[in-house]
Structure formats: C-alpha cells, structure tokens
C-alpha cells in the first residue's frame, strides 16, 4: 500500500477503525485509512467553518471550481457539509481561455458538478468580457498570475451574485495562506495583511467571501481527491510564472517537516491575533468608491477598478 507522508516509518493503524493506515497526519499525531481520511478531513473543515462562522445564515453557496485539486476537494466537502447544515452548493468555473489547459479545467469542473448532481455554471471570459487571460498577459506588463488572479476574483464575485448566492467559497489552502503571510511580512504590506482573512463579510461586495480550506494543507486536499478518485485537471497552466513566493513556500515545507504543525500555527495565530490587530489600524472598508465604468466597488482613490483597467487594455489585443 502507498503510504503518504510516512517516509521511513512503518504504517500505523487508522485512528477510527484500527485497520492499517494509508496516510499519516503528523500535526494530529494520527494515521487514517483511505476510507476514513476523507471523512475526518470533512469533519475538520466543518469545525473550522463553524468556528469562523463561515456559513452562518447561508442558503446558497457558490464554490469557485478551477478544476484543480483544492477546488475539487472543496466542492465535494461543502456539498456534504451543506446537506447537513442546510445550504445549497453551486459550482462556478471561470473559463480563462488558456487553450487546452482551460478546456481540460472546464471539463473537470463540469464532471464534478455532474457527479454531485448540483448546478454548475461556466463563465466564459471571452464571451462575457471580450478577452482571455492570454490577451491580458500580452497587453500588460505584470506577472501572468497576478493579472489572472484579479480577473478571476472579479468574474467569480459577479458570477456568485448572478446565481443568487449569498456566499462565495474559494479553495485557498493552508500552504497558500502561509505563503501570503510570509510574503506580506517580508514586504511590509500591512494593508494586504489586514485584508487577508478567512471570512470577508458582505458589505463592500454583495456576497460574503470565505476560505474553508485555510487550515487544510495542500497535501491533504491532494490525498482527499486521490482517495475519492475524483476527476481533476492534472495539466499545468502554461502561463504559470516562477515567483519568489514559490521558493518561500518550498522552504516553509522544509520547516514543517522538521516542526510538524508549524504552518498551521503560523496561519492560525495570524488569523486569530495578528490580522484583527492590523484590521483595526489599516482596514478602511467604509471608504469605498465606485468604478466609473462598471459601477462595482473600487478603492477610494481610483476612478476605474483594476479589472476594468485590465479589460480596456486586453480587449484591444483580443484575438477572435
Ligand atoms: Fe492563472 Fe497563473 Fe493559475 Fe495559470 S497558473 S490559471 S495564469 S493564476
Ligand atoms: Zn479507518
Ligand atoms: Zn470596473
């Protein structure tokens, strides 16, 4: 049997059923079999969601499904949680127009929604907004992933409102969060850190935004998807840029290996103590302006939101 994360050790017994374990979770000092790990992880996600009141009053939750492992795990876990907690789940996928990578991603999103018997919506950037991510990258001198991130965020928020959701859930995991925290400290970006939280209440935007996987390691979502045999996109995005964040992430995983639970404590303490203190001082959510073009929220000092700025440049270079 393949033993995930059990390097150099013989497998222990599943904490739940006592059969041979398939995965070792060092921070919980436990082993789980392939049947019980996914259930245990869903329970953990549910406890985190409850602690941070992610779905309090939610009736319809839009889940951002890129087709990658984190979003696929999130969709399945939230469907199970929603069935108990009384909210409905809708999968929302943004087709970025990145050739075969995007076709495979859309197909994975569609198959997962079908498997769960839920509504799945695909927003085609080219059709809805007149440009693709490759168009945007050609027209703007900034890293592809940063442009892509802001475009996706905008398209997802609008799509969540369009499908009548009250909550938008995204698949940011613990490794992503640890990287954001470390990079934010390194650059002294106190405003960015003040905005980095597991729950962003509705207000500035019409829907609440939540990150239910923010305390789940990337390795755990990968194992959840593998053990459940879920469809996901395995091709790499051809536009992915090498960033210094990637190096930091790798090094943090080395620290994690030596000090199990390090990344979890870093992110949890940040969310519980540091971010609220920074928010008091640096978050100015009341001061919202409106974009002159699309009417959506923007920073006070900007007439045009970042999305519309990208769209204007990209639409000029759009192909077909
Ligand atoms: Fe977008 Fe970067 Fe992800 Fe590609 S790797 S889909 S460019 S964020
Ligand atoms: Zn078991
Ligand atoms: Zn705008």
SSE layout and pairings?
Elements: E1 23-25, E2 30-32, H1 36-51, E3 60-64, H2 69-85, E4 88-95, H3 99-116, E5 119-124, H4 125-129, H5 133-139, H6 144-162, E6 167-169, H7 174-187, H8 190-195, E7 199-200, E8 208-210, H9 218-228, H10 244-258, H11 262-282, E9 288-290, E10 297-299, H12 306-317
Parallel strand pairs: 3-4, 3-6, 4-5, 6-8
Antiparallel strand pairs: 1-2, 7-8, 9-10
One zinc ion is lined by residues 14, 16-17, 19, 32-33, 35-36.
Domain tRNA(Ile)-lysidine/2-thiocytidine synthase N-terminal: 61-231
Keywords: ATP-binding, Metal-binding, Nucleotide-binding, Transferase, Zinc
Pfam families: ATP_bind_3, TtuA_LIM_N
CA-atom Rg in angstroms:
20 Å
User: Sheet with the most strands?
Assistant: 6 strands, mixed
The CATH superfamily of the largest domain bears the name HUPs
In the CATH scheme, what's the topology name of the largest domain? Rossmann fold
Q: Helicity, in percent?
A: 40-55%
The overall number of domains is 3
Overall mean confidence score, pLDDT: 93
pLDDT < 50 stretches: none
Count of discrete alpha- or pi-helical segments spanning 4 or more residues: 12
Strand content: 5-15%
Which small molecules are bound?
iron/sulfur cluster, zinc ion
H-E string: EEHEHEHEHHHEHHEEHHHEEH
GO molecular function, one term: tRNA binding
Keywords: ATP-binding, Metal-binding, Nucleotide-binding, Transferase, Zinc
Domain tRNA(Ile)-lysidine/2-thiocytidine synthase N-terminal: 61-231
Binding site for Zn(2+) 2: 291, 294, 305, 308
């Amino acid at each position: 049997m393949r033993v995930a994360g059990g390097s150099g050790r013989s497998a222990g017994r599943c904490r739940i059923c006592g059969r041979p374990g398939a995965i070792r979770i060092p921070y919980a000092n436990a082993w789980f079999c392939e049947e019980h790990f996914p259930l245990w992880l869903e329970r953990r996600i549910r406890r985190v969601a409850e602690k941070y009141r992610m779905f309090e009053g939610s009736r319809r939750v839009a889940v951002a499904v890129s087709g990658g492992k984190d979003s696929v795990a999130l969709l399945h876990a939230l469907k199970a949680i929603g069935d108990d907690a009384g909210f409905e789940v809708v999968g929302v996928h943004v087709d970025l127009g990145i050739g075969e990578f995007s076709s495979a991603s859309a197909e994975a999103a569609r198959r997962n929604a079908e498997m769960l018997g839920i509504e799945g919506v695909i927003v085609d950037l080219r059709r809805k907004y007149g440009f693709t991510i490759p168009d945007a990258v050609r027209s703007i001198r900034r890293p592809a992933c940063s442009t892509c991130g802001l475009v996706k965020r905008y398209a997802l928020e609008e799509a969540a409102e369009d499908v009548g959701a009250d909550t938008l859930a995204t698949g940011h995991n613990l490794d992503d969060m640890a990287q954001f925290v470390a990079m934010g400290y390194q650059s002294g970006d106190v405003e960015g850190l003040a905005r980095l939280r597991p729950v962003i209440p509705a207000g500035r935007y019409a829907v609440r935004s939540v990150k239910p996987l923010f305390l789940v390691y990337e390795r755990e979502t990968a194992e959840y998807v593998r053990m459940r045999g879920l469809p996901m996109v395995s091709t790499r995005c051809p536009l992915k840029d090498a960033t210094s964040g990637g190096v930091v992430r790798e090094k943090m995983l080395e620290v994690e290996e030596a000090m199990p639970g390090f990344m979890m404590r870093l992110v949890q303490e940040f969310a519980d103590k540091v971010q609220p203190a920074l928010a008091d001082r640096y978050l100015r959510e009341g001061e919202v302006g409106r974009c002159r073009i699309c009417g959506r929220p923007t920073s006070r000092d900007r007439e045009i939101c970042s999305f519309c700025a990208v769209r204007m440049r990209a639409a000029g270079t759009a192909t077909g």
